[in-house]
Amino acid sequence: MTWTDGPLLGFDTETTGVDTDHDRIVTAALVRRDRDGTHVRTWLVDPGVEIPEGASAIHGISTEHARAHGVEPRGALDEIAAAIAAAVREGIPVVAYNASFDLCLLEAELRRHDLPTVEDRLGGELRPVIDPLVLDRAEDRYRSGKRKLVDLCGVYQVVDTGSLHTADVDVVATLDVLERIVGRFPHLGDLDLVSLHDYQVTAHRAWAEAFNAWRTERGHTGPGAESAWPSRAATRATAVVAA
């Protein structure tokens, strides 16, 4: 029996934007997959700020809809963080596509609302985490083409994905893609969770360094890719706001 037999806890968010220090969670999903099946829990959050039209166009949630039907963020964030921490204490890995985005944004949101972060609740690093994007880059690094979730669904022949950019649908697709990746690269399933997590830390750092060197060679400016995975310290202060 290996970690591939489960349980696994998938996590995804849809947000107001892509700045992990300043943007807000609009929807979130936790999907537990185990021998009894797939169990989905979702949140619709009123982020307390305007949702830009560009973000709404991606996930379909308008400011008006979030205000009318969403819950206040503090309670939702506390529930999400508590569920993730409880799973990790049980030894259940957190599975997220481009995990550093969702996990960093969640931690920033928790700090913003003066709540303990997931790492605070665990008393240390959030691990193990499994990120199909990191694994795909490491195992099939010379494959051309984009590597968004929808692209990997095509590469690994994951069908019936529903409407991607809905948090719960994205999590289910992420878990399906992970299963197909391990099927294609079975040595990943032979690793224990500690070794698998550490493998991804090293693989992501190697990818980020190579990507940033490529950017420098071509004269690109800007911060480039973060070398830390799956989380990092906040680079900018996040002020506490009223609930």
From TrEMBL:
GO terms for cellular component: cytosol. Transmembrane segments: none annotated. It comes from the Bacteria. Coiled coil: none annotated. Keywords: Exonuclease, Hydrolase, Nuclease. Residues 7-187 form the Exonuclease domain. This is DNA polymerase III subunit epsilon. The lineage of its organism: Bacteria, Bacillati, Actinomycetota, Actinomycetes, Micrococcales.
